[in-house]
Specification:
9-stranded mixed beta sheet; binds beta-D-ribofuranose; two-stranded antiparallel sheet; binds calcium ion; 11 strands; Inosine-uridine Nucleoside N-ribohydrolase, Chain A
């Protein structure tokens, strides 16, 4: 197996941290760059957390700072979910220093050097950095094998009744990414809600892994409040679903759809419009991940986290 060149843009974020460790532990992926964006908390924290997560995994992948606001407005954070520092209060040892520069420049540099249709781009936060890449150098979409995003909701949102947090925080940037012409896969809330982490999954991780990353991941999981939508049974591993699709697509059932995002100012801002039946007369521009084999997902996730230092 040849590991696929991969870029990860993220806003760690408790579930981003788990997703990053999954990616760094996965031989299917050659993570060449991690970029940070504001979102769950401000960029100062998401950048520090990204560096710390990379450092704890013993990785030398460069980490670069990106946007700390959306294209048209400031972000609204989710510190009430992820804690003031973004990791539920867990303080990880400081990681390697950030590479100088700006996320969109760093991503463009990697894409320019890459073979056509070769790079997997994974977006785990508001799409601002990714939107800047494809708005400023649209031809780079030709270097992309697939863009995998944790974003959006087909059904109920989690920040407004209509919209999911990442999509709602920068729908204009998301619209650029959805329209860039590269293949897109979407892990929306509808599938990520199926990745419910309960006490059983935490106990399994504690039993499987003795390393610092597994211990930190278990601490993170223990610190996240159970969600109301799960009836208090656990909390969702949203971002790890996007990485899992890149690593093991057989865990999912996906459907080709034409998808747009509502960029209007009203109640529907950030909502996805998903056309399964060609009503808009447009070819499919995304694979919508609809069903997840959750037991196999957690088996994979646990094994990979347990294999880290
Ligand atoms: C998404 O929003 C963030 O809070 C999570 O990290 C995830 O990327 C879920 O709606
Ligand atoms: Ca995230």
């Amino acid at each position: 197996m040849t590991p696929r060149p991969t870029l990860i843009d993220c806003d760690p974020g408790t579930d981003d941290a788990i997703a990053l460790w999954l990616a760094l532990a996965s031989p299917e992926l050659d993570v060449r760059l991690v970029t940070a964006v504001g979102g769950n908390v401000g960029l100062a924290h998401t950048l520090r957390n990204a560096r710390a997560v990379v450092g704890l995994a013993g990785s030398a992948v460069p980490v670069v700072a990106g946007a700390d606001r959306a294209l048209t407005a400031p972000y609204v954070d989710a510190a009430h979910v992820h804690g003031d520092n973004g990791l539920g209060g867990l303080i990880l040892p400081d990681g390697p220093a950030a590479m100088p520069g700006v996320a969109a420049d760093a991503m463009r540099a990697v894409l320019r050097e890459a073979a056509p249709r070769s790079v997997t781009v994974i977006g785990l936060g508001p799409a601002t950095n990714l939107g800047l890449v494809f708005a400023t150098e649209p031809a780079l979409a030709g270097r992309v094998a697939e863009i995998v995003l944790m974003t959006g909701a087909v059904g109920e949102g989690n920040v407004t009744p209509s919209a999911e947090f990442n999509a709602w925080n920068d729908p204009e940037a998301l619209a650029i990414v959805l329209g860039c012409g590269a293949p897109v896969a979407l892990a929306t809330l509808d599938v990520t809600n199926q990745a419910l982490c309960t006490g059983a999954e935490i106990a399994a991780l504690r039993a499987a892994g003795q390393g610092a990353c597994a211990a930190a991941a278990a601490r993170i999981w223990e610190g996240v409040k159970p969600s109301r939508r799960s009836g208090g049974r656990g909390h969702e591993q949203h971002d790890a679903c996007a990485v899992a699709w890149a690593v093991a697509p057989g865990l999912f059932v996906g459907t080709p759809v034409f998808v747009e995002v509502d960029c209007g100012p009203g109640l529907g801002r950030g909502r996805l419009s998903v056309d399964r039946w060609g009503r808009r007369g447009q070819a499919a521009n995304a694979t919508l991940l609809e069903r997840l084999d959750a037991p196999r997902f957690f088996t994979l996730l646990t094994a990979r986290l347990a294999a880290l230092p």
